[in-house]
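RECORD TYPE: protein structure
NAME: Glycosyltransferase family 9 (Heptosyltransferase)
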Amino acid sequence: MAASMAFSTYIIKDVYFNDYHGRKNFALARFLSAHYDHREQGGIHFIEQKARLLNLVGINTPSKAMFLPAPFTAEQPTKPIIGIHAGASSPERCWPAEKFTRLIQMLLAQHPQVDIVLIGGTNERALNQSIIDGLDDGRENVRNLAGKTNLKQLAACIASFSCLVVGDTGPLHVAVALKTPVVTLFGSASTAGAAPIQDLHLHRMVVPDDKNEGITAIRVEEVYMNVNQSLRANARDRVSEELT
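PREDICTED:
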């Protein structure tokens, strides 16, 4: 819509299928992405899908690695920070707030030296606060930054994290582009479309044991274990960099 209002000569958009709400005779079908139908061919990453679309119009994509083109200055924390993004664009992508509370409680009990930073947009501030309010102790180690950062400030914040716990949502991809380790919570066993495709040694994915229950079925203990593994691996990487 924005491209149309800007009088763009050409608009290249991938809408994932070439009909409209199941209408086989949709008049605009030839203007949509007829080369690939997600309902018939699953298991392709969205980045790969966009690269194929660009290739169709003669644009080569030699690298599919993500990066942030906007300059920013990364924060320099004095102690490890675990980031958490609890919100998402739709409820089925959100892990329950009470589980985030339990995760934070377990992490602070094991790692009292770390800070916990909850990020998000303005509309996620109340969600983050409900997570903090549920804590028995350790609130002084937890900050709610939802709605307090613009995009550059958010990137600087995420770049400082030792690990980010996040669902299938925007900050996940920002973290991957910044090479910040992530523990990603997926609501489905199918992660091919959005899982990290670069620096795989940095990232961990958690999917529900019971696919019928979605993301709510992911156990706190499993996320806690993955965060601990990420922190240990990140510490080893830092030592290795210092030695070399």
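COMMENT: The helical segments are 2-5, 46-56, 97-110, 125-133, 151-159, 170-177, 220-243.
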